[in-house]
Every structure is written in structure tokens, then in C-alpha cells.
């Protein structure tokens, strides 16, 4: 039986995944990308007796919601048998449409550019370094709990895409106060919708969004202490 080959460009077109991300995911899963003429293919074997197409689809779905592929690597697939009239059906990644799960950030889901006909393989290590540098969280449990995690992720994704958190600045400022965080001028500017220069010109003790901001000198830098007003 010939090893399974997946056309890289066709897979990217189907799932709208950037080249950097799919290369990083393949590396994490132990799959390789090879060139045959002007086309590139994903090849390799996985230890779970599933097709590489399914293996990659599961990884893409997980990566879009968590930025990790830990469950995929562990073989904790979101796939469950259910009794239906006339037999047994399945609910999980295999039955999900490719657009079902929205990404945590728009940059990890985008329409690929037209493929280059060059025989040179581009090097893009951004997503790979991101996966390598972040500490890996524990894999989700298998079974009912894992299904609940998946359903919750889908629900949260839909809710987040439809209703942005308009109180995000206040919540972040409240957390900074409660945790005793000192924040930079640039961070405070982003939260208050002001430029860095405008924040720098403010006097210590100015008030905005129900909080008071006190200048704290740390070496040659200026930080801000947040307090509810």
C-alpha cells in the first residue's frame, strides 16, 4: 500500500489555513512536507490507525480554538458513537464542516494565495516557533468530558465572534488593580484609546473610565498604578 499523500495547496485551500500554521502543525504531528515537481505534499504516518486527512483536520480544528494540538498528538479525538434509527452514527470532527470552528485570532484562518510554481520551498518558522515556545497545557480527558469541552469551545467561539466584550478595558484595569500590576504607558494607552504620547503627558492621578492612574518610577521607566476612583 502506497503511503498517503495529501496535496498541501489543496488542503490549505479547503481549510483556509496559512502556510506557516500548517507547516508548524505537520512538524508537531511528525508529518513531513515534500516537493514533487511544482507541487508539495504532506506525507508520513500517524500512530492511531486513522487517515492523515482526518489526523490533520482534527489538528486544524483544535489549533484554531487553542493554538495547540495536544489532544490530536495524544489520540484524544473528538469523535463519539451515537445510536440512530437504523444503526450507529458518529458525532465529532469527521462530521464537522471545515468552517464550523472559528479561530481564536483571524490570522490563523485565511484564504491562501495562489501557489508558486517555484521549486524552492519557502521557509516560514513563525507559527512553528510559537508552538515550540508556548508551554503545552494538559490534554483534555477522553469521553463525555471531552465532548463537553468541545461543545463549550464551539459555543464560546460563536458567542465571541458575534458579541465583542465592550467592557474589556474596565475588566483589564480592575484585574490590574486587584493583582497589583503596574502597567506600561503603551499598555495604558491601548486600554484607554489614547496615544503613548498623550498618556506620557498626563499628570499623576488623572482619572479615566472610573479609575485613577498614579505614575510610578522604575529605574528610567515610568509605569502606572491603577486604582478604582
SSE blueprint and pairings:
Blueprint: E1 6-7, H1 8-15, H2 19-29, E2 32-36, E3 39-43, H3 52-66, H4 70-74, E4 79-84, E5 87-92, H5 126-133, H6 144-162, H7 168-179, E6 182-184, H8 185-192, H9 196-201, E7 206-208, E8 211-218, E9 221-228
Antiparallel strand pairs: 1-3, 2-3, 4-5, 6-9, 7-8, 8-9
Helix pairs in contact: 2-3, 2-5
Structural class: alpha+beta
Q: Write out the strand line-up for the largest beta sheet, numbering strands in chain order.
A: 6-9-8-7
Radius of gyration: 23 Å
Work out the helix count.
9
- What percentage of the residues does DSSP assign to strands (E)? 15-25%
Spans of at least 5 consecutive residues with low confidence: 116-126
Largest sheet: 4 strands, antiparallel
Round the mean pLDDT to the nearest integer and report it. 77
End-to-end gap? 71 Å
DSSP strand count: 9
What share of residues is helical? 40-55%
The SSE string, one letter per element, is EHHEEHHEEHHHEHHEEE
Gist?
With about 230 residues, the protein is α+β, with helices and mostly antiparallel strands. It has helices at about 10-15, 20-30, 50-65, 70-75, 125-135, 145-160, 170-180, 185-190, 195-200, and strands spanning about 5, 30-35, 40-45, 80-85, 85-90, 180-185, 205-210, 210-220, 220-229.
